[in-house]
Amino acid sequence: MPANAAPENLMETLVSLCKRRGIIFPSSEIYGGLNGFFDYGPLGSEMKRNIRNAWWQDMVHRRDDIVGIETSIIMHPKVWEASGHVAGFTDPLVDCKVSKQRYRADQLFFAPVVVDGKTVGYVSALESENTTGELQTAAEAFKRKKAIQGALEPVKPRDMTEAAPEEIALIPSPATGEPGSLTPPRAFNMMFETYVGALRDDSAKSYLRPETAQGMFADFRNVVDTGRVKLPFGIAQIGKSFRNEITPRNYIFRSREFEQMEMEYFIHPDADWLACHEEWLTWCQEWLKSIGLPESHLSLYEHAKEKLAFYSRRTVDIMFKYPFGVQELWGIAARSDYDLQQHQKFSGVPQTWFDEASKTKIVPHVIEPAVGVDRILLAILCAAYHEDEVEGEKRVVLKLHPRIAPYKVGVFPLLKNKPELVKRAQELYRKVKRRHNAFYDESGAIGRRYRRQDEIGTPWCVTVDFETIEKDGTFTLRDRDTLEQKRINETELLALLDEKTA
Ligand code: ATP
Protein backbone atom coordinates (compact mmCIF):
# COMPACT_ATOMS: atom_id res chain seq x y z
CA MET A 1 0.00 0.00 0.00
CA PRO A 2 1.43 3.42 -0.90
CA ALA A 3 1.92 5.87 1.94
CA ASN A 4 -1.20 7.88 2.77
CA ALA A 5 -3.50 5.46 1.03
CA ALA A 6 -7.01 4.43 2.02
CA PRO A 7 -7.63 0.68 2.10
CA GLU A 8 -9.67 -1.21 -0.51
CA ASN A 9 -12.44 -2.03 1.95
CA LEU A 10 -12.76 1.53 3.22
CA MET A 11 -16.40 1.24 4.33
CA GLU A 12 -15.79 -1.86 6.48
CA THR A 13 -12.68 -0.28 7.94
CA LEU A 14 -14.58 2.89 8.79
CA VAL A 15 -17.55 1.08 10.30
CA SER A 16 -15.22 -0.82 12.60
CA LEU A 17 -13.19 2.29 13.51
CA CYS A 18 -16.41 4.20 14.25
CA LYS A 19 -17.61 1.40 16.54
CA ARG A 20 -14.26 0.96 18.28
CA ARG A 21 -13.63 4.63 18.93
CA GLY A 22 -17.17 5.68 19.85
CA ILE A 23 -18.11 7.60 16.74
CA ILE A 24 -21.18 5.70 15.47
CA PHE A 25 -23.09 2.70 16.92
CA PRO A 26 -26.09 0.80 15.54
CA SER A 27 -29.20 2.04 17.36
CA SER A 28 -30.50 -0.20 20.20
CA GLU A 29 -27.73 -2.65 19.50
CA ILE A 30 -28.40 -4.74 22.61
CA TYR A 31 -31.70 -5.73 20.97
CA GLY A 32 -30.08 -6.54 17.66
CA GLY A 33 -30.22 -2.99 16.23
CA LEU A 34 -32.94 -1.43 14.09
CA ASN A 35 -32.35 -1.17 10.36
CA GLY A 36 -31.86 2.42 9.24
CA PHE A 37 -31.27 3.93 12.68
CA PHE A 38 -27.95 4.91 14.24
CA ASP A 39 -26.56 6.41 17.42
CA TYR A 40 -23.69 8.84 17.59
CA GLY A 41 -21.23 8.10 20.38
CA PRO A 42 -19.12 10.52 22.42
CA LEU A 43 -16.86 11.39 19.48
CA GLY A 44 -19.49 11.17 16.73
CA SER A 45 -21.82 13.52 18.55
CA GLU A 46 -18.98 16.04 18.87
CA MET A 47 -18.28 15.79 15.14
CA LYS A 48 -21.93 16.20 14.23
CA ARG A 49 -22.23 19.17 16.53
CA ASN A 50 -19.14 20.69 14.91
CA ILE A 51 -20.65 20.26 11.43
CA ARG A 52 -23.90 21.85 12.59
CA ASN A 53 -22.08 24.71 14.31
CA ALA A 54 -19.84 25.40 11.31
CA TRP A 55 -22.86 25.52 9.00
CA TRP A 56 -24.89 27.70 11.36
CA GLN A 57 -21.99 30.07 11.89
CA ASP A 58 -21.33 30.46 8.16
CA MET A 59 -24.94 30.31 6.97
CA VAL A 60 -26.60 32.39 9.68
CA HIS A 61 -24.22 34.26 12.02
CA ARG A 62 -21.75 35.47 9.43
CA ARG A 63 -24.38 36.73 7.01
CA ASP A 64 -26.78 39.63 7.33
CA ASP A 65 -29.50 38.21 5.11
CA ILE A 66 -30.30 34.88 6.80
CA VAL A 67 -32.10 34.10 10.05
CA GLY A 68 -32.49 30.76 11.78
CA ILE A 69 -35.55 29.04 13.22
CA GLU A 70 -36.45 25.74 14.88
CA THR A 71 -39.84 24.32 14.05
CA SER A 72 -41.67 21.30 15.45
CA ILE A 73 -41.11 17.83 14.05
CA ILE A 74 -44.82 17.05 14.03
CA MET A 75 -46.75 19.73 12.21
CA HIS A 76 -50.40 20.17 11.26
CA PRO A 77 -51.24 17.36 8.81
CA LYS A 78 -52.50 19.93 6.30
CA VAL A 79 -48.89 21.10 5.88
CA TRP A 80 -48.13 17.79 4.19
CA GLU A 81 -51.22 17.91 2.04
CA ALA A 82 -50.29 21.39 0.85
CA SER A 83 -46.67 20.44 0.22
CA GLY A 84 -47.68 17.45 -1.87
CA HIS A 85 -46.08 14.88 0.44
CA VAL A 86 -49.31 13.03 1.31
CA ALA A 87 -50.08 12.41 -2.34
CA GLY A 88 -46.64 12.21 -3.83
CA PHE A 89 -43.82 11.48 -1.39
CA THR A 90 -43.56 7.91 -2.56
CA ASP A 91 -41.00 5.46 -3.76
CA PRO A 92 -41.90 2.59 -6.10
CA LEU A 93 -41.83 -0.65 -4.10
CA VAL A 94 -41.50 -4.23 -5.35
CA ASP A 95 -42.16 -7.20 -3.05
CA CYS A 96 -40.80 -10.72 -3.33
CA LYS A 97 -43.78 -12.86 -2.27
CA VAL A 98 -41.58 -15.83 -1.39
CA SER A 99 -38.73 -14.26 0.60
CA LYS A 100 -40.80 -11.29 1.89
CA GLN A 101 -37.91 -9.03 0.84
CA ARG A 102 -38.78 -5.53 -0.37
CA TYR A 103 -36.93 -3.60 -3.03
CA ARG A 104 -37.03 -0.09 -4.37
CA ALA A 105 -38.10 -0.64 -7.97
CA ASP A 106 -35.66 1.96 -9.24
CA GLN A 107 -32.79 0.14 -7.50
CA LEU A 108 -33.68 -3.33 -8.80
CA PHE A 109 -32.32 -3.87 -12.30
CA PHE A 110 -33.05 -6.58 -14.84
CA ALA A 111 -32.13 -7.50 -18.38
CA PRO A 112 -33.40 -9.97 -20.93
CA VAL A 113 -30.88 -12.70 -21.82
CA VAL A 114 -30.71 -12.48 -25.61
CA VAL A 115 -29.03 -15.28 -27.58
CA ASP A 116 -28.87 -15.09 -31.38
CA GLY A 117 -31.46 -12.31 -31.29
CA LYS A 118 -33.94 -14.33 -29.19
CA THR A 119 -34.89 -13.62 -25.56
CA VAL A 120 -34.31 -16.87 -23.65
CA GLY A 121 -34.83 -15.62 -20.09
CA TYR A 122 -34.19 -12.79 -17.64
CA VAL A 123 -31.57 -11.90 -15.02
CA SER A 124 -31.73 -9.37 -12.19
CA ALA A 125 -29.32 -7.52 -9.88
CA LEU A 126 -29.54 -4.87 -7.20
CA GLU A 127 -28.07 -1.48 -8.07
CA SER A 128 -24.35 -1.37 -7.43
CA GLU A 129 -21.30 0.35 -8.81
CA ASN A 130 -21.18 -2.32 -11.51
CA THR A 131 -24.80 -3.27 -12.18
CA THR A 132 -24.23 -3.88 -15.89
CA GLY A 133 -21.21 -6.10 -15.22
CA GLU A 134 -23.17 -8.15 -12.69
CA LEU A 135 -26.09 -8.58 -15.09
CA GLN A 136 -23.71 -9.62 -17.88
CA THR A 137 -22.09 -12.24 -15.62
CA ALA A 138 -25.53 -13.47 -14.56
CA ALA A 139 -26.60 -13.72 -18.22
CA GLU A 140 -23.52 -15.77 -19.07
CA ALA A 141 -24.18 -18.08 -16.11
CA PHE A 142 -27.83 -18.42 -17.18
CA LYS A 143 -26.84 -19.42 -20.71
CA ARG A 144 -24.29 -21.95 -19.40
CA LYS A 145 -26.71 -23.46 -16.89
CA LYS A 146 -29.42 -23.94 -19.50
CA ALA A 147 -26.82 -25.19 -22.01
CA ILE A 148 -28.03 -22.76 -24.66
CA GLN A 149 -25.90 -22.56 -27.81
CA GLY A 150 -25.34 -19.33 -29.75
CA ALA A 151 -24.03 -15.77 -29.35
CA LEU A 152 -25.01 -13.91 -26.19
CA GLU A 153 -25.74 -10.23 -26.76
CA PRO A 154 -24.48 -7.59 -24.30
CA VAL A 155 -27.15 -6.98 -21.62
CA LYS A 156 -29.27 -3.85 -21.72
CA PRO A 157 -30.20 -3.08 -18.09
CA ARG A 158 -33.50 -1.48 -17.12
CA ASP A 159 -34.97 -0.96 -13.68
CA MET A 160 -38.23 -2.45 -12.43
CA THR A 161 -40.18 0.76 -12.98
CA GLU A 162 -39.60 0.16 -16.70
CA ALA A 163 -40.65 -3.52 -16.73
CA ALA A 164 -43.64 -4.40 -18.90
CA PRO A 165 -46.39 -6.31 -17.02
CA GLU A 166 -45.66 -9.51 -18.97
CA GLU A 167 -41.95 -9.26 -18.12
CA ILE A 168 -42.48 -9.06 -14.33
CA ALA A 169 -43.44 -12.74 -14.05
CA LEU A 170 -40.24 -13.74 -15.87
CA ILE A 171 -37.74 -11.66 -13.87
CA PRO A 172 -36.00 -13.61 -11.08
CA SER A 173 -36.14 -12.29 -7.52
CA PRO A 174 -32.64 -11.39 -6.25
CA ALA A 175 -33.53 -13.22 -3.02
CA THR A 176 -34.50 -16.59 -4.53
CA GLY A 177 -32.90 -16.45 -7.98
CA GLU A 178 -36.22 -17.75 -9.40
CA PRO A 179 -38.86 -15.87 -11.44
CA GLY A 180 -42.51 -15.63 -10.48
CA SER A 181 -42.40 -14.04 -7.03
CA LEU A 182 -41.90 -10.32 -7.77
CA THR A 183 -44.92 -8.01 -7.62
CA PRO A 184 -45.48 -5.05 -9.96
CA PRO A 185 -44.16 -1.78 -8.47
CA ARG A 186 -46.59 0.13 -6.26
CA ALA A 187 -46.29 3.56 -4.69
CA PHE A 188 -45.16 3.46 -1.07
CA ASN A 189 -45.47 6.67 0.98
CA MET A 190 -42.30 7.21 2.98
CA MET A 191 -43.76 9.40 5.71
CA PHE A 192 -43.92 7.89 9.21
CA GLU A 193 -47.46 8.20 10.53
CA THR A 194 -48.36 8.94 14.10
CA TYR A 195 -51.41 10.00 16.09
CA VAL A 196 -51.69 13.20 18.06
CA GLY A 197 -53.77 12.91 21.24
CA ALA A 198 -55.73 10.03 22.69
CA LEU A 199 -57.81 9.09 19.64
CA ARG A 200 -56.34 6.82 17.00
CA ASP A 201 -58.57 7.78 14.10
CA ASP A 202 -57.95 9.60 10.85
CA SER A 203 -58.70 12.98 12.42
CA ALA A 204 -55.70 12.52 14.76
CA LYS A 205 -53.32 11.23 12.11
CA SER A 206 -50.15 13.20 11.57
CA TYR A 207 -46.62 12.62 10.35
CA LEU A 208 -43.02 12.87 11.45
CA ARG A 209 -41.63 15.48 9.10
CA PRO A 210 -39.78 14.05 6.08
CA GLU A 211 -37.93 17.36 5.58
CA THR A 212 -37.36 20.49 7.64
CA ALA A 213 -38.14 22.84 4.73
CA GLN A 214 -41.91 23.03 5.29
CA GLY A 215 -41.25 24.59 8.70
CA MET A 216 -39.67 27.57 6.96
CA PHE A 217 -42.62 27.97 4.58
CA ALA A 218 -45.25 27.58 7.29
CA ASP A 219 -43.47 30.24 9.39
CA PHE A 220 -42.74 32.59 6.49
CA ARG A 221 -45.22 35.23 7.62
CA ASN A 222 -44.15 34.97 11.26
CA VAL A 223 -40.54 35.64 10.33
CA VAL A 224 -41.45 38.48 7.98
CA ASP A 225 -43.67 40.08 10.62
CA THR A 226 -41.13 39.82 13.42
CA GLY A 227 -37.67 39.44 11.94
CA ARG A 228 -37.02 42.79 10.22
CA VAL A 229 -35.97 40.91 7.10
CA LYS A 230 -35.93 42.38 3.61
CA LEU A 231 -36.02 40.56 0.27
CA PRO A 232 -33.86 38.74 -0.65
CA PHE A 233 -33.47 36.88 2.61
CA GLY A 234 -33.20 33.35 3.87
CA ILE A 235 -34.62 31.23 6.68
CA ALA A 236 -32.42 28.37 7.84
CA GLN A 237 -33.07 25.39 10.05
CA ILE A 238 -31.20 22.34 11.32
CA GLY A 239 -33.17 19.38 12.56
CA LYS A 240 -34.18 15.75 12.40
CA SER A 241 -36.18 14.38 9.49
CA PHE A 242 -37.71 10.94 9.10
CA ARG A 243 -38.28 8.83 6.01
CA ASN A 244 -39.41 5.25 6.01
CA GLU A 245 -36.86 4.34 3.34
CA ILE A 246 -37.57 0.99 1.68
CA THR A 247 -33.91 0.06 1.56
CA PRO A 248 -31.81 2.00 4.06
CA ARG A 249 -28.22 1.30 3.13
CA ASN A 250 -24.63 2.35 2.94
CA TYR A 251 -24.33 2.91 6.69
CA ILE A 252 -25.46 6.44 7.62
CA PHE A 253 -25.81 7.51 3.96
CA ARG A 254 -29.46 6.50 3.71
CA SER A 255 -31.14 6.07 7.05
CA ARG A 256 -34.69 6.38 8.30
CA GLU A 257 -33.94 9.05 10.89
CA PHE A 258 -31.43 11.67 9.85
CA GLU A 259 -30.61 15.30 10.26
CA GLN A 260 -30.98 18.02 7.66
CA MET A 261 -29.59 21.52 7.29
CA GLU A 262 -31.87 23.42 4.96
CA MET A 263 -32.22 27.02 3.94
CA GLU A 264 -34.98 28.69 1.98
CA TYR A 265 -33.73 31.80 0.21
CA PHE A 266 -36.66 34.04 -0.75
CA ILE A 267 -36.28 36.26 -3.80
CA HIS A 268 -38.46 38.66 -5.75
CA PRO A 269 -40.37 36.92 -8.58
CA ASP A 270 -38.63 39.26 -11.06
CA ALA A 271 -35.16 38.63 -9.63
CA ASP A 272 -32.56 36.72 -11.65
CA TRP A 273 -33.31 33.31 -10.11
CA LEU A 274 -30.71 31.52 -12.24
CA ALA A 275 -27.90 33.79 -11.04
CA CYS A 276 -29.06 33.30 -7.46
CA HIS A 277 -29.17 29.52 -7.94
CA GLU A 278 -25.62 29.61 -9.33
CA GLU A 279 -24.46 31.70 -6.37
CA TRP A 280 -25.81 29.16 -3.91
CA LEU A 281 -24.31 26.31 -5.88
CA THR A 282 -20.90 27.96 -5.60
CA TRP A 283 -21.41 28.83 -1.94
CA CYS A 284 -22.26 25.23 -1.03
CA GLN A 285 -19.27 23.78 -2.89
CA GLU A 286 -16.91 26.29 -1.31
CA TRP A 287 -18.33 25.51 2.11
CA LEU A 288 -17.78 21.79 1.69
CA LYS A 289 -14.18 22.46 0.69
CA SER A 290 -13.74 24.81 3.63
CA ILE A 291 -14.52 21.99 6.08
CA GLY A 292 -12.04 19.66 4.43
CA LEU A 293 -13.73 17.81 1.58
CA PRO A 294 -11.34 17.47 -1.36
CA GLU A 295 -12.42 19.08 -4.62
CA SER A 296 -11.40 15.90 -6.46
CA HIS A 297 -14.29 14.05 -4.76
CA LEU A 298 -16.95 16.64 -5.58
CA SER A 299 -18.94 16.91 -8.80
CA LEU A 300 -22.25 18.30 -10.01
CA TYR A 301 -25.31 16.50 -11.33
CA GLU A 302 -27.88 18.53 -13.21
CA HIS A 303 -31.36 16.99 -13.07
CA ALA A 304 -32.87 16.60 -16.53
CA LYS A 305 -35.59 19.21 -17.18
CA GLU A 306 -38.17 16.57 -18.09
CA LYS A 307 -37.63 14.72 -14.81
CA LEU A 308 -38.08 17.77 -12.58
CA ALA A 309 -41.28 18.30 -10.60
CA PHE A 310 -43.53 20.65 -12.58
CA TYR A 311 -42.89 23.59 -10.22
CA SER A 312 -39.13 23.17 -10.17
CA ARG A 313 -37.09 25.34 -12.49
CA ARG A 314 -33.73 23.73 -11.90
CA THR A 315 -32.12 21.26 -9.51
CA VAL A 316 -28.41 20.58 -9.30
CA ASP A 317 -26.96 18.11 -6.80
CA ILE A 318 -23.46 18.32 -5.40
CA MET A 319 -22.24 14.75 -5.59
CA PHE A 320 -19.56 13.11 -3.47
CA LYS A 321 -17.39 10.17 -4.48
CA TYR A 322 -18.23 7.74 -1.65
CA PRO A 323 -16.55 4.31 -1.64
CA PHE A 324 -19.88 2.84 -2.85
CA GLY A 325 -20.20 5.26 -5.76
CA VAL A 326 -20.78 8.88 -6.65
CA GLN A 327 -23.91 9.90 -4.72
CA GLU A 328 -25.99 12.97 -3.85
CA LEU A 329 -24.69 14.97 -0.94
CA TRP A 330 -26.41 18.35 -1.29
CA GLY A 331 -29.40 19.30 -3.45
CA ILE A 332 -29.78 22.89 -4.63
CA ALA A 333 -33.24 23.49 -6.05
CA ALA A 334 -34.99 26.47 -7.61
CA ARG A 335 -38.55 25.82 -6.40
CA SER A 336 -40.38 28.84 -7.87
CA ASP A 337 -43.21 30.11 -5.61
CA TYR A 338 -44.82 26.68 -5.39
CA ASP A 339 -44.60 26.11 -1.64
CA LEU A 340 -45.86 29.52 -0.52
CA GLN A 341 -48.64 29.41 -3.12
CA GLN A 342 -49.72 25.98 -1.89
CA HIS A 343 -49.78 27.09 1.75
CA GLN A 344 -51.71 30.20 0.79
CA LYS A 345 -54.25 27.99 -0.97
CA PHE A 346 -54.58 25.36 1.75
CA SER A 347 -54.50 27.68 4.78
CA GLY A 348 -56.36 30.64 3.30
CA VAL A 349 -53.73 32.90 4.87
CA PRO A 350 -51.92 35.20 2.41
CA GLN A 351 -48.26 34.29 2.02
CA THR A 352 -47.26 37.56 0.47
CA TRP A 353 -44.64 40.23 0.74
CA PHE A 354 -45.37 43.93 0.26
CA ASP A 355 -43.05 45.21 -2.43
CA GLU A 356 -42.35 48.88 -1.70
CA ALA A 357 -41.05 49.57 -5.21
CA SER A 358 -44.16 48.47 -7.07
CA LYS A 359 -46.57 48.98 -4.11
CA THR A 360 -47.98 45.52 -4.74
CA LYS A 361 -48.13 42.27 -2.84
CA ILE A 362 -46.00 39.54 -4.32
CA VAL A 363 -45.35 35.89 -3.47
CA PRO A 364 -41.58 35.38 -3.32
CA HIS A 365 -39.79 32.61 -5.17
CA VAL A 366 -37.31 30.39 -3.44
CA ILE A 367 -33.87 28.82 -3.89
CA GLU A 368 -33.32 25.87 -1.54
CA PRO A 369 -29.97 24.31 -0.62
CA ALA A 370 -30.78 21.11 1.36
CA VAL A 371 -28.14 18.86 2.82
CA GLY A 372 -27.91 15.99 5.32
CA VAL A 373 -25.57 16.24 8.32
CA ASP A 374 -25.07 12.47 8.36
CA ARG A 375 -24.09 12.40 4.68
CA ILE A 376 -21.57 15.19 5.28
CA LEU A 377 -20.13 13.31 8.25
CA LEU A 378 -19.78 10.13 6.19
CA ALA A 379 -18.11 12.07 3.36
CA ILE A 380 -15.72 13.65 5.84
CA LEU A 381 -14.83 10.29 7.37
CA CYS A 382 -14.24 8.73 3.94
CA ALA A 383 -12.01 11.58 2.83
CA ALA A 384 -10.15 11.85 6.13
CA TYR A 385 -9.21 8.20 6.62
CA HIS A 386 -5.57 7.49 5.82
CA GLU A 387 -3.07 4.81 6.63
CA ASP A 388 0.63 5.54 6.51
CA GLU A 389 3.81 4.48 8.23
CA VAL A 390 5.43 6.38 11.06
CA GLU A 391 8.66 5.18 12.66
CA GLY A 392 8.29 1.80 10.99
CA GLU A 393 4.76 1.26 12.29
CA LYS A 394 1.44 1.42 10.50
CA ARG A 395 -0.47 4.52 11.52
CA VAL A 396 -4.20 5.12 11.12
CA VAL A 397 -4.99 8.79 10.90
CA LEU A 398 -8.17 10.77 10.38
CA LYS A 399 -7.13 13.99 8.70
CA LEU A 400 -10.09 15.97 9.97
CA HIS A 401 -10.37 19.71 9.54
CA PRO A 402 -9.77 21.37 12.94
CA ARG A 403 -13.32 22.79 12.87
CA ILE A 404 -14.73 19.27 12.64
CA ALA A 405 -12.27 17.26 14.80
CA PRO A 406 -13.91 16.10 18.07
CA TYR A 407 -10.88 17.12 20.11
CA LYS A 408 -8.82 20.08 18.98
CA VAL A 409 -5.79 19.21 21.05
CA GLY A 410 -4.38 16.39 23.18
CA VAL A 411 -2.55 17.51 26.33
CA PHE A 412 0.07 15.21 27.84
CA PRO A 413 2.64 15.33 30.62
CA LEU A 414 5.80 13.66 29.32
CA LEU A 415 5.87 11.33 32.34
CA LYS A 416 3.01 10.52 34.66
CA ASN A 417 5.19 9.90 37.70
CA LYS A 418 6.58 13.45 37.77
CA PRO A 419 4.07 15.52 39.78
CA GLU A 420 5.38 18.85 38.49
CA LEU A 421 4.80 17.79 34.85
CA VAL A 422 1.35 16.39 35.65
CA LYS A 423 0.36 19.54 37.54
CA ARG A 424 1.36 21.87 34.71
CA ALA A 425 -0.26 19.65 32.05
CA GLN A 426 -3.53 19.54 33.97
CA GLU A 427 -3.45 23.28 34.47
CA LEU A 428 -2.99 23.81 30.74
CA TYR A 429 -5.68 21.23 29.92
CA ARG A 430 -8.23 22.97 32.17
CA LYS A 431 -7.42 26.32 30.63
CA VAL A 432 -7.69 25.09 27.01
CA LYS A 433 -10.95 23.28 27.78
CA ARG A 434 -12.70 26.52 28.65
CA ARG A 435 -12.58 27.41 24.95
CA HIS A 436 -11.89 24.19 23.04
CA ASN A 437 -12.59 20.50 23.48
CA ALA A 438 -9.32 18.91 24.61
CA PHE A 439 -8.23 15.45 25.72
CA TYR A 440 -5.90 14.75 28.62
CA ASP A 441 -3.81 11.60 28.47
CA GLU A 442 -0.94 10.50 30.68
CA SER A 443 -0.96 6.75 30.09
CA GLY A 444 1.62 4.88 28.02
CA ALA A 445 4.55 5.93 25.89
CA ILE A 446 4.25 9.30 24.20
CA GLY A 447 4.24 7.68 20.72
CA ARG A 448 1.23 5.55 21.70
CA ARG A 449 -0.59 8.63 22.95
CA TYR A 450 0.04 10.42 19.64
CA ARG A 451 -1.27 7.37 17.77
CA ARG A 452 -4.50 7.28 19.80
CA GLN A 453 -5.14 10.93 18.94
CA ASP A 454 -4.22 10.45 15.26
CA GLU A 455 -6.85 7.76 14.93
CA ILE A 456 -9.61 10.11 16.08
CA GLY A 457 -8.34 13.09 14.13
CA THR A 458 -6.99 15.37 16.87
CA PRO A 459 -5.02 17.98 14.87
CA TRP A 460 -2.45 18.82 17.56
CA CYS A 461 -0.91 17.37 20.70
CA VAL A 462 1.07 19.32 23.28
CA THR A 463 3.48 17.71 25.70
CA VAL A 464 4.60 19.28 28.95
CA ASP A 465 8.24 18.24 29.40
CA PHE A 466 11.25 19.22 31.48
CA GLU A 467 11.99 22.25 29.33
CA THR A 468 8.52 23.55 30.25
CA ILE A 469 9.28 23.39 33.93
CA GLU A 470 12.96 24.16 33.99
CA LYS A 471 13.43 26.58 31.12
CA ASP A 472 10.96 28.85 29.40
CA GLY A 473 7.49 27.44 30.01
CA THR A 474 7.05 26.32 26.36
CA PHE A 475 5.60 22.95 25.34
CA THR A 476 6.22 20.60 22.44
CA LEU A 477 3.49 21.04 19.84
CA ARG A 478 3.13 18.11 17.46
CA ASP A 479 1.19 18.40 14.20
CA ARG A 480 -0.94 15.40 13.19
CA ASP A 481 -0.41 15.76 9.44
CA THR A 482 3.17 17.01 9.06
CA LEU A 483 4.40 15.26 12.24
CA GLU A 484 6.43 18.39 12.76
CA GLN A 485 7.30 19.24 16.38
CA LYS A 486 8.03 22.74 17.63
CA ARG A 487 8.08 24.74 20.86
CA ILE A 488 5.09 26.91 21.61
CA ASN A 489 3.93 28.89 24.63
CA GLU A 490 0.46 29.02 26.13
CA THR A 491 -0.62 32.27 24.47
CA GLU A 492 0.51 31.03 21.08
CA LEU A 493 -1.29 27.71 21.57
CA LEU A 494 -4.58 29.40 22.44
CA ALA A 495 -4.21 31.79 19.50
CA LEU A 496 -3.53 28.86 17.13
CA LEU A 497 -6.62 26.98 18.35
CA ASP A 498 -8.82 30.10 18.15
CA GLU A 499 -7.71 30.84 14.63
CA LYS A 500 -7.86 27.36 13.12
CA THR A 501 -11.11 26.22 14.66
CA ALA A 502 -13.11 29.38 13.93
P1 ATP B 1 -32.09 10.67 -2.31
O1 ATP B 1 -32.40 10.85 -3.78
O2 ATP B 1 -30.69 10.27 -2.02
O3 ATP B 1 -33.13 9.86 -1.57
P2 ATP B 1 -33.41 13.16 -2.00
O4 ATP B 1 -33.16 13.80 -3.32
O5 ATP B 1 -34.72 12.54 -1.71
O6 ATP B 1 -32.22 12.12 -1.67
P3 ATP B 1 -33.77 15.58 -0.58
O7 ATP B 1 -35.20 15.37 -0.35
O8 ATP B 1 -33.34 16.57 -1.60
O9 ATP B 1 -33.05 14.19 -0.87
O10 ATP B 1 -33.08 15.87 0.82
C1 ATP B 1 -32.03 16.79 0.97
C2 ATP B 1 -30.80 16.15 1.56
O11 ATP B 1 -31.12 15.40 2.74
C3 ATP B 1 -30.12 15.13 0.66
O12 ATP B 1 -29.27 15.77 -0.25
C4 ATP B 1 -29.33 14.31 1.67
O13 ATP B 1 -28.11 14.94 2.02
C5 ATP B 1 -30.25 14.29 2.87
N1 ATP B 1 -31.03 13.03 2.91
C6 ATP B 1 -32.15 12.75 2.23
N2 ATP B 1 -32.60 11.52 2.53
C7 ATP B 1 -31.73 11.00 3.43
C8 ATP B 1 -31.64 9.75 4.13
N3 ATP B 1 -32.56 8.80 3.98
N4 ATP B 1 -30.60 9.56 4.97
C9 ATP B 1 -29.67 10.52 5.15
N5 ATP B 1 -29.70 11.72 4.52
C10 ATP B 1 -30.71 11.96 3.67
Describe this structure in words.
The chain is an alpha+beta fold and 502 residues long. Helix 2 (42-61) packs across helix 11 (373-384). The two termini are 35 Å apart. The chain binds adenosine-5'-triphosphate. Residues 211, 243, 245, 254-255, 258, 260, 328-331, 370-372, 374-375 line the site of adenosine-5'-triphosphate.
Taken from the alpha-carbon principal axes, the silhouette is globular
Ligand inventory reads:
adenosine-5'-triphosphate
Oligomer: single chain
Total number of β-strand segments? Answer: 26
What is the count of DSSP helices, taking H or I runs of 4+ residues?
A: 15
Largest beta sheet: what is the strand line-up? 3-12-13-19-16-15-14
Average the pLDDT over all residues and give the rounded result.
95
The description of the largest β-sheet is: 7 strands, mixed
Using the CA coordinates, give the radius of gyration.
27 Å
Helical amount: 25-40%
